[in-house]
Amino acid sequence: MRRIEPYFPLSHGVPRVDDRRIVSGIIYVIKHGLMWRDAPKEYGPHKTIYNRFIRWSRLGVFNKIFAGLAAKGGKPDQLMIDATHLKAHRTAASLLKKGMFPDVSDAPKAA
What we know:
mainly alpha
């Protein structure tokens, strides 16, 4: 938290919900694929978590945090991409059966 606190916007006089709780709530909701209203109460009001996420996203707070932490980490030895979190819609499995995708064997051959 010490490393990312400088990136948070300053409060404008009104005491706000603890940034640590809000960041934890944002991470929890995104990690578990929840709707904002399903965030556990321990992280504060779901509307506050959502509003802070939207506001900080628009202000580029998360991009600044990621860029700042990445810059301090040095050059990586290797890069990896993982897209296993992507989900197919439940009807995607039936699209092939319904002829929605052309059969690869029917594709025209390149000359």
